[in-house]
Amino acid sequence: MSEPLTPLLDRIHSPDDLKTLSREELPQLSEELRGEIVRVCSVGGLHLASSLGATDLIVALHYVLQSPRDRILFDVGHQAYAHKMLTGRRHRMPTLKKEGGLSGFTKVSESEHDAITVGHASTSLANALGMALARDAQGQDYRVAAVIGDGSLTGGMALAALNTIGDLGRRMLIVLNDNEMSISENVGALNKFMRGLQVQKWFQEGEGAGKKAVEALSKPLADLMSRAKSSTRHFFDPASVNPFAAMGLRYVGPVDGHNVQELAWLLERLVDLDGPTLLHVVTKKGKGLSYAEADPIFWHGPAKFDPATGEYAPSSAYSWSSAFGDAVTELAAQDPRTFVITPAMREGSGLVRYSQVHPHRYLDVGIAEDVAVTTAAGMALQGMRPVVAIYSSFLQRAYDQVLHDVALENLNVTFAIDRAGIVGADGATHNGVFDLSYLRSIPNVRIGLPRDAAELRGMLKYAQEHPGPFAIRYPRGNTERVPEGTWPELEWGTWERVQAGDDVVILAGGKALEYAVKAAAGLPGVGVVNARFVKPLDGATLREVAGKARALITVEDNTVVGGFGSAVLEALGEMGLRVPVRVLGIPDEFQDHATVESVHARAGMDTAAIRTVLAELGVDVPLEV
Question: Quick one: the chain helix, strand, coil %, rounded to 5?
Answer without folding.
Answer: 45, 15, 40
